Amino acid sequence: MEKNSKPNTPLVTHIYTADPSAHVFEGKIYIYPSHDLDHSEPSNDNGDQYKMEDYHVLSMENLNAPCVDHGEVLHVKDVPWAKKQMWAPDAAFKNNTYYLYFPARDHDDIFRLGVATSSSPAGPFTPQPDYIPGSYSIDPAVLVDEDNKAYCYFGGLWGGQLEKWQTGTFLPEAEGPDLSAPALGPRVAELSDDMLTFKETPEEISIVDNEGNPLVAGDEERRFFEGPWVHKYNGYYYLSYSTGTTHSIVYAISKNPKGPFVYQGKILTPVSGWTTHHSIVQFQDKWYLFYHDCSLSDGVDHKRSVKYTELNYNEDGTIQTIDPYKE
Ligand code: FUB
């Protein structure tokens, strides 16, 4: 299935897609989204409405070319350790292999991160039999750095279960920190050379303000909620993420892939629907933001569509805020 790609319009309309992770592989843009499905169950704070079962891969030769759906590349029934909820994935290339990283609930209903491999960026992907040991929560995003080290960033509050891992083990009743205490940060772990396991125990990333004070849990306009993404620009690491309850994509920067990251500002103003989730990629000489909203489904929260728009930097390296509904 193909559709012409235009900025700020759904890349495909024959299926609902969300959580786009965009990469340039083999000279083309590949997008690894979640695949939202039709159902009539109610929404809740646990995210039970996001009942995804499989992944499709999308690609575009360039930004003027049609967007191609390469079809189903991995299904939950083929992942022995996973039970349900194939949420936001990402992909990476190393060792002449394409890796698809994805979260799902295991058979104990605990979110874990899995990895699947392919010789092609368009899949299909073959899953590893078990989840990545020591992995938890949701929304993996992998950066392969210029020195060839690879880092896996992940985490999400509420349905993403990050609150339950504050002690390093899963505590089903655990709640988030006090509103005046440092907010929970996303996690990062360097990946092993074969990209299939963590080289180390995941660390919490600190996000601080200009004075070096950690953002606090009650600072819902700025604190991390879910959907971490890291890209590099002019030697800086840019960590961007969703603020969840306040529905923005914001960012913080660091000279170090593990932070601390200093909060900078807003990248994307709220879109239609509760969730917002993005990725940032350079293609040829321009930068693009891939994101989703619920415009195609008239606001039905669990039926989102992936879009893109151009992203611009100011001379000082800050990112210009995007309102996707403003001409
Ligand atoms: O798509 C399911 C979940 O919703 C993702 O994992 C979150 O980032 C949010 O977009």
Task: Report what the structure shows.
The structure is a single chain. The protein has 327 residues and is mainly β. Helix content is 0%, strand content 41%. The protein has no helices and 22 strands. It has strands spanning 2-4, 16-25, 28-36, 54-60, 66-75, 82-84, 90-94, 97-106, 111-118, 126-127, 141-144, 150-154, 187-190, 203-204, 207-208, 226-233, 236-242, 249-254, 261-268, 278-283, 286-293, 305-311. The strands form five sheets. A five-stranded antiparallel beta sheet has the order 1-5-4-3-2, with no helix packed on it. Strands 6, 7, 8, 9 and 10 form a five-stranded antiparallel beta sheet that branches. It starts with a strand and ends in a 16-residue tail after the last strand. 46% of the residues are buried. Residues 18-19, 34, 47, 50, 87-88, 138-139, 156, 226-227, 275, 277 line the site of beta-L-arabinofuranose (FUB).
Bound molecules: beta-L-arabinofuranose
Strand-residue proportion: 35-45%
Q: By helix and strand content, what is the structural category?
A: mainly beta
How many helix segments?
Answer: 0
CATH topology: Tachylectin-2, Chain A
State the total count of DSSP E strands: 22
| Helical proportion, percent range | under 10%
Q: Kindly provide the radius of gyration, computed on alpha-carbon positions and rounded to a whole number of angstroms.
A: 18 Å
Calculate the terminal CA-CA distance, rounded to whole Å.
Answer: 29 Å
The ordered string of helix (H) and strand (E) elements is: EEEEEEEEEEEEEEEEEEEEEE
**Number of separate structural domains:** 1
CATH homologous superfamily - what is it?
Glycosyl hydrolase domain, family 43
The strand order across the widest sheet is 1-5-4-3-2
Question: Which spans have pLDDT < 50 for at least 5 consecutive residues?
Answer: none
In the CATH hierarchy, the architecture is 5 Propeller
Largest sheet descriptor: 5 strands, antiparallel
Quick one: CATH class?
Mainly Beta
Give the overall silhouette: globular
Mean pLDDT: 97
